[in-house]
Here is the input.
Amino acid sequence: MKQISRRSFLRTAISAGAATAAGCVTVNFKQDYIDAHVHVWTPDTAKYPLASGMTKGGCVDSFTPEQLFAHCKHEGVDRIVLIQMSFYKFDNSYMLYAIAKHPGVFSGVAIVNEHETGVSQRMKDLAKQGVRGFRICAGKEKDLEKWLGSPGMAEMWKTAADEGLSICPLINPDTLPLIDKMCVKYPRTSVVIDHFSRVGMTGSILRTDLDQLLQLSKHPHVHVKTSAFYALGKKQAPYLDLGPMIRECRNHFGAQRLMWASDCPFQVVSGHNYHDSIALIRDRLDFLSVEDKEWMLRRTAEKVFWA
Here is the structure.
């Protein structure tokens, strides 16, 4: 959700390694937790070029699967949902490479161009390569109703329903009423809302924004990622200020429709770390039952992205 500098990334990675060596990080390889939202990319822009006009900006030059494993394996996270990185746009090649290189470890959320012909077939082809969801993002679109109401978007939502795939909106709270309308129009389509729909990104959790998110719980195929803690609310570990929002989401959606995710590598820079992200759900919220945690840390994402 934000850009990261190479210096900040390296400093956090070194700190994480030191903590592990000192015995400060819980090591558990048997839980089979699933991180439902991670971005990976490679420094090899010759083989995997950035999309035209795109740059990595302030992002670190590299966040490969191997760099990810250095953070997640010590927390018992053995499977990960990869989200296509924005600066590759519609070229999902590097994500597909990572999925193929690590069989059984990764599932994918790809990006396709809904304005091109054959979007349905493209989705089906990607599904054969380990993709289980498709990210949609308004980007610079000014007319959000027109964007969501386009013929290509209709084809995407219909294909997702027919093929057992998910539509994954990266949106702000003001787009939630339009997603509500799409869920009414396409009631069979699985939807996964990223990062609580960014409720709380401005620093405070507005009641009106959260209520709009909770309204989507009336649609049985809508799921929510409890994720990107570093960017929401007070933006400070241990992120306990997000507890009330998580409780309300659990009460409305049920833990069976919530999934935890880190949003790495952005979660592991600027003084944040991987442990604090998973620990909020696993260790720090006493209102979550053992069964709640099992769904949020594994079973929901497994149902959606590995079924």
